Amino acid sequence: MTARTARNLRRISQVVFFLIFLWLILKTTFEVSFNPSDPSEIMLPYPVSIALEFDPLTALATLLSTGTLYEGLLWSLVILIPTIFIGRFFCGWVCPLGSLNNWVSEIGSERKSRKGTRIVESNRYKKYQRIKYYVLLVFLGGAITGVLQVGLLDPLPLLARSLGTAVLPMLHTAALGILGLCKDTGFPPIMNSAQFAYDLIAPVMLPFRQAHFHGIITIGLFFLIILVLNRIFTRFWCRAICPLGAMLGIFSRYAIFGLKKDESSCDQCNLCLVSCQGADNPNIGSKWRQPECHLCLNCQASCPKGSLKFTFFPNQKATKANPVGTPKVDITRRKTVASVVGGLALFPLFRSGDAFKVNANPYMIRPPGATPEEDFIARCIRCGQCMRVCPNNALHPTLLEAGLEGMWTPILIAKIGYCEPSCTLCGQVCPTGAIAELTMQQKVGDKEVPPNRIGTAFVDRGRCLPWAMATPCIVCEEWCPTSPKSIYFKNEIITDSRGKEVAVKRPYVDAALCTGCGACEFACPVSDRPAIYITSVGESRSTENQILLKKKPSPPQQQT
Amino acid sequence: MKRREFLKKTGQAVALAAVTGGTGLVFHNRETATANAPIVKSVDFEIPPDKSLPPVVLANNTDPIVALNSALDAIGGIKRFIQPGERVTIKPNVGWDRTPEQAANTNPLLVGEMARLCLEAGAAKVIVTDVTCNEARRCFLRSGIRNAAEEAGADVILAQPDDFLMTNIGGELLTTWPVLKHFIHCDRLINMAIVKHHSLSSCTLAMKNLYGMIGGRRNQLHQQIDQSIVDLASFGRPTLTVIDATRVLLRGGPTGGSLDDVAIENSVICATDQVAADSRACEFLGLEGNQVSHIVLADKIGLGSLDYRSIGYKEIA
Predict the structure, then answer these.
(1) What is the pTM of this model?
(2) Residue B44 lies in a domain
């Protein structure tokens, strides 16, 4: 195989893996055309979160934070073990965020047309590339204490979250906007072709319902910054920040595959540096750095003299002109210790504040099946899969509702969407078990098993129509999905402002029956701030966040 | 400065000033927003009455399909309602994310059979749709209605936000309201309701089922539920009203959930008089037509007849 063929193979691999990743994100939805064999219990047809389960950093960090490797995370060994032998092939060949950074760095880049010393210099190894190792160590230090922050920067959850909750909803809004503009022209050829194009992309690209996410501004901006940085430094994210890249760099310490430089044939043209993605010094005259190399094979393909060659056991003698490459990670012992200690300090930093438990936000309503907060925060990688799959757009990335520690973890905002009683999709897609996969029986409950509760509803009597405005309503009771209903009412005759007697039904909540699904809040006609709302108290996952001394074990038989 | 240069530069500035000022004047408007005129459209899908046929028929059979067919035959058969080439919209109750056994939605067997009959009678297209309360994909799937209707050859349509037309309902209470376009762009409308308990209106039957034609802020309608039901029933006026009383939800409606609240009644009502149909159907819930205020109101304004027995009610065992 020639050097150029090998490089082209890498390019094809990048496109293929990117498309697979994108396809899985697109499929993380309840499609209209989807027809399960058993329509009474809806299960997704394939494991759409599988790409996230191949992430070795998610696997390692959740192993540290929870002491176990959840379900499909064993797949991550498929990435990690080959890395031990050949180095960071994942970064150059597989990682969808890496490929995106690669493309954004290169396509139409001014730096490429300005080849010469500036691009050569910017592609030499820089000290700041160490940052990623310290980022990794801080995160792993935190994970040991159960503070899992790795999802903020781990490229696979990061890309899943950015695409799922920011980019794709934006494209949806844009598509609807363009369609609307074209329809407003009133000119049939434009209207029809716009509708045709929309109908063509909608089944593939757009979910059934336009989603509106809560934390989109920070997620979208963060993603934009990552992409823009590529225009200043090639693959800056991969070189300097990515904790997964750092982890794979460390694991390539004993790699048996690497770059062999032949100094005798080299004429120092530096074309290898012009095209280097990892800034790992492929040129003769510097030490080649295995942990920085993405195995993109550009240097080998661009070398006009054939002086560079990737090979197994690339042992060679060091000479004055060509110091032998180093497999060592360029970090100091002192800073390593400092980083881990810094990571350990995340625990007191976050938990000495009040957001975690003592003053937890009452609107921090976790998805159904979420594990107790301590375990939840040790598992959630903020990939946003639960938010994307939720058919009601009920789950949202937080801003600071769960404290800084819980940024971008999921909460339910019932005003936007409530938790559909029979739905268990969020637990089906969670790659780390932060949301347990509930059966229908565990979700809805029956005479033996209590239902899964995410909170409790409260009536705001100052805003409720029958309580405050002498107006009949009781939509909350109509929508209440529990059986018997958790919302009951009392018939009252009250006098309105004109002295007229009005019969109203005033709602009350039976906290022993309420599951906190939020259907009442969603349906309440007082639309801006609903007159019935849910808070997290009463959630199944907590022993402390409870109101009642004892919940009724099974629903009582309602009288006729 | 040369004269030519002076004229050119001044001319450019004047031209830009003129364009700027002109744009301002052209778009100047003292109104803050302009309202869209509603589409005025009366949707009356009724067929002429036939004195020789009963306006309400109830058939009883353990097989829902047999019950539907015998009720339909007694009221004139499908050919009385559907002419070849017509576009038919069937409106079952698909309000909730429930299975057929829970009796919160219309029996899927009846919906499938009705779609099949319409196509057999030569309908050009049969659409089955509803503006659901719970999530539409789940409602249509778990109710079994999507599968039943598609197997029968009908098109199942899940409403999207831009599928609604601002329509003049022309009611006492409901004036301009968004109506799902499939209830306007069709020739025949078949309303297929289910008998359920409802706390506010005491029951949800055929007329109440027409809530599912409209979108918008439906949750406000409870404030004057009787008038809004009657307004919609006066506007909708289906060709044929079918009421599913194969399973009846006695308590905890309209959502239900517990099978303990479901009574098996094995009955199907077909009617050309929706008020009479509702008046008969509410008896499954232990009510009389004159106890249900929206039925009383509908009778009062002449929409139909509360006293269904006096107008030729027929029952088939």
Answers:
(1) 0.89
(2) no
